[in-house]
Amino acid sequence: MTHASFSGENNRALSILGANVIETSASLRLLENDLEISAKELNRLVSELSKVESSCAADGLRLGLHKVVRVSPKTNSTTPLVVCGAFRAIFGAIALDVGKSDDAGSYFWGVHGGQVGGALAM
Question: Is 70 helix (H, G, I), strand (E, B) or coil?
């Protein structure tokens, strides 16, 4: 894993893909659970799940990503932004490797524990 502070060749593009995989997967699960959910509530719950300061960074720290991501000497590898970027990049890489965002979303739920907005998601 390489952070942008370390090198121009980094995982930023995979992180963008991974963020989209996570948000799409969360939206699908929430709508499967409640087709009548308002757009505002759907957006709030998806946003809560993908916030750098909350579950994204916590999941990444739990996996120990701060120990494997390469950063510049001036960058703290445990900051939420760094850890969350690495966390998202994993799911972007999975989607790219298997050629399916659905499979990457399934792996995300395995790591995250199936929770969306404090409620169990299918």
Answer: strand
Q: What is the pTM of this model?
A: 0.81
pLDDT (0 to 100) of residue 107: 86
In a domain, 16, yes or no: yes
Is residue 5 assigned to a domain? no
Q: How many Cβ atoms sit within 10 Å of the Cβ of residue 116?
A: 21
Q: pLDDT class for 122, splitting at 50, 70, 90? A: very low
Q: What is the number of structural domains in the chain?
A: 1
Q: Write the single-letter amino acid at 27.
A: S
Structural domain that includes position 83: 12-120
- Give the CATH number for residue 76: 1.10.1520.10
Give the Cα separation of 59 and 50 in Å (integer).
Answer: 11
DSSP label of 119: E
Residue partners of 31: CB distance under 8 A and separation at least 6: 37, 42
* CA–CA distance, 59 with 88 (Å, rounded to integer): 10
CB 106 within 8 Å of CB 19: no
